[in-house]
């Protein structure tokens, strides 16, 4: 069975993405992580389980919980994860997902160009994700 790793810290956005994936690709198994640290831990240990990683650009450093606020929000956590994958020669493709148009003063187009140059083996483009308010 094909398996995707979904890295997203916003539960509503993660649920919307999973619903869409299950609708379009019912045979795919989805594993989830919701912070920088849990994502890198999963990718570094189990990358060979996944054929693609759907990666949020901005996320908290740690999982939020009952007694934990999730740590510091990191605007470019996804880029940091891609950098780590490159350094460890992890061969999994990554699609970056975002609902923001800029990150630390960089436009999504500038970030896209930078990721293509810095992580050509992994980075496979971005998906602009807009959550509708009904």
TrEMBL record:
InterPro entries cross-referenced by the UniProt entry: CheY-like_superfamily
Gene3D superfamilies: 3.40.50.2300
Name of protein: Response regulatory domain-containing protein
Source organism (scientific name): Bacteroides graminisolvens DSM 19988 = JCM 15093
